[in-house]
Specification:
With 290 residues, this protein is mainly alpha-helical. It folds into two domains: 1-158, Tetracycline Repressor, domain 2; 159-290. Helices cover 72% and strands 0% of the residues. The chain is built from 15 helices and no strands. Helix 3 packs antiparallel against helix 6, helix 3 (35-62) packs parallel to helix 7 and helix 13 runs antiparallel to helix 15 (272-289).
Length: 290
């Protein structure tokens, strides 16, 4: 039984909050009143939780040697010796199989999306994470697959506006993570993640601001569009915009002035204002649309 915590830690359940992207379509697609649709989306979310856990285990098994030299990652189960690389690979395979089985209960589209996520993530771990810019695009694509799992995967028509906003948001967070890693690791950054040698703070700051501005503009346009009011039966979705501005500004503040920004899930748990902005956005969306 003493090995169980190490295996569970390897799946990083604290990171599963990112899979809330799967739930977005349930709200914006007005499908929450359909019990069958709710069950399908919840199954797809659970499938992505296990799929992402499989990816984390696979990544940790491959990068254990490098992780041991990292100030934060050296405490991960494989890096510290609590779980062997072979056990991590086995757990990754089991989690991936269970994820695909759960997706199969939803439908073939959900299976295809989860499978695409697993292939993309494995390709990222082996190859894409070494290519500047493409590494961040690959991460953002993984989140797009989450959005598609909760829309196209269960039979909900995905909103092109929300896909655009989600893509820009995840690009923003991806570039912010690279900046935080460079700031955290300084001259040793390239030793822990080779692609960091090809980035500079100046370039990343420009990429971050470009993505942040694009995301806010796209979301603002979406909330104010006549098409949006027609779909949701209200023109008040713009009331959610202040929460987006607060969350984005607070994240930039944490990134630039407080040494944060490396992990969105951790930032959300550590910073009360960030948590408030997310909770406020969710509550306002549910109030306006519901």
């Amino acid at each position: 039984m003493s090995r169980v915590p190490g295996f569970l830690e390897l799946l990083r359940p604290q990171q599963w909050i990112k899979n809330a992207f799967v739930l977005v379509g349930l709200v914006f697609g007005h499908a929450w009143r359909d019990p069958a649709m709710v069950n399908a989306v919840l199954l797809a979310t659970l499938a992505f939780c296990l799929a992402s856990g499989a990816v984390y285990a696979f990544n940790d098994a491959r990068d254990a040697a490098r992780d041991r030299e990292h100030p934060d990652k050296r405490t991960r189960p494989v890096a510290r010796g609590a779980v062997s690389p072979g056990e991590a690979h086995a757990l990754s395979a089991v989690a991936a199989i269970v994820a695909l089985a759960l997706a199969a209960w939803v439908g073939w589209r959900a299976v295809a999306i989860v499978a695409a996520y697993l292939v993309l993530s494995a390709t990222y771990t082996v190859w894409l994470k070494h290519i500047p810019v493409l590494d961040v695009v690959a991460i953002a694509a993984g989140f797009m697959l989450r959005l598609l799992a909760g829309t196209l995967g269960v039979g909900i028509e995905p909103s092109k506006w929300l896909l655009a906003c989600g893509f820009l948001l995840t690009l923003f967070l991806g570039f912010a993570k690279r900046r935080a890693e460079i700031a955290r690791l300084a001259d040793d950054a390239g030793q822990h993640r080779a692609v960091l040698e090809d980035y500079s703070i100046g370039f990343l700051d420009k990429a971050i601001m470009l993505c942040a501005a694009g995301m806010i503009a796209a979301y603002a346009w979406y909330t104010l569009a006549a098409e949006t009011a027609l779909i949701h039966g209200t023109g008040s979705l713009a009331l959610t915009l202040p929460w987006v501005l607060l969350g984005t500004g607070r994240y930039l503040y944490r990134l630039r002035l407080r040494g944060g920004g490396g992990d969105p899930a951790e930032e959300l748990l550590r910073d009360p204002l960030m948590a408030l902005s997310v909770a406020g956005w969710i509550a306002t969306v549910l109030w306006v649309i519901g």
